[in-house]
Amino acid sequence: MLEKRKNKTKVIFELAVNELIKIFFLVFRSFFIILFFCISATLEADSIPQFQMKDQYGQSYSDSSIKGKPIVLMGCFLRDVEVCRKQGRKLYWKMQNLLWKDSNKVNFLMYLDLKESNKLVEDYIEESKHKQYENILLDRKGQLANGLSKGEVFIRIYNKSGKLLSTTYKSEIEETLIQEVYEILKKEI
After folding, report:
1. Which in 93, 129, 136, 187 has the greatest CB count within 10 A?
2. For residue 116, with 0-12 CB atoms within 10 Å meaning exposed, 13-18 middle and 19 or more buried, which class applies?
């Protein structure tokens, strides 16, 4: 009888160990699947986001059409359009002067998140088509809205193949930032 009990205990123990091993492998496999998706998401986050939109003049832009040159991508919420315009112009014109003959080797793109647009805004955009403003991408679907911050310009710099090099938020663009952007772009041209 003692022998039967030992065999039964041994069988139960072996079943328990086998179940524990199955659970361990299931957890281990799940961990690696989650890790794979996290790494994939990180790699995608370090690339230029996919987008396709037009500027106020009707010119089409997309992530694939702007690759091949370093990219300075600046954006903000609609309510921050004045901060965006003022700081965007400052950075854009300083880069034009610093890069001089190489300025055409860089894509400078500014965009506005227009998900909260209204008729007044749309009328203003329509009226502005006759003025000589810098091109502003009109993000009506919020394709580039991820990462925007209230009251600040979201500035990202990508290399020729669309990989993220730098990211920052600014409500005021100082000379130190202009110099940093210049140094990054000069290396990429």
Report:
1. 136
2. exposed
